[in-house]
């Protein structure tokens, strides 16, 4: 157990204690047992929208940095391509889990891809097992692979039809991504429905803002150091 101030960034944290004077946070839903994440505002990386021989793919910039392509006889990370440019994949900088995820997406060595555009980070509003609502940021949403009920080919959740049942087949990305999704109840065989998409609003960080937290429902709050030191998590 530690205080929120001491806790690591971008890791699911369960609230186990709230100090005195934090009644306003309780009113906002920050209660004992709530799962939150401590995030960095600068982590709003764009999403790469790619065209491959198998169709469209959404790739978080963190993963795109590990895909090496060749252009003008030079090897560069996929993330360095300009919009509209084409290049062939020649290597990966990552382990087995990354390679398996990229293969599922159709990104294999020798494949030519085109960077169609860069998308801002969005919030995907979903219904889980027809019971509860959650909000997923782009980075996690793109790591959910499954099949729409209409019989269309398997795809990433953000590319599925709005409102249509979507059964999760596999979680992509790192073990940390799997853990983050599992914490909010998303695993293979989970049924999701994409209910809406909205841009992530700009977050104004005033002089008193020390850290930013986000809940599984997409609530984002700025906290000062005193508040963060009076929230205990594990």
TrEMBL record:
SMART domains the record matches: FeoA (SM00899)
Keyword list, A-Z: Iron
Pfam family for this entry, one: FeoA
Domain Ferrous iron transporter FeoA-like: 2-71, 76-148, 157-234
Gene3D superfamilies, A to Z: 2.30.30.90
InterPro entries: Fe-transptr_FeoA-like, FeoA_core_dom, Transcriptional_repressor_C
One example GO MF annotation: transition metal ion binding
Keyword Iron: yes
Source species, domain of life: Bacteria
Keyword tRNA processing in record: no
The protein's name in its UniProt record: FeoA family protein
Organism of this sequence: Desulfobacca acetoxidans (strain ATCC 700848 / DSM 11109 / ASRB2)
Organism lineage string: Bacteria, Pseudomonadati, Thermodesulfobacteriota, Desulfobaccia, Desulfobaccales
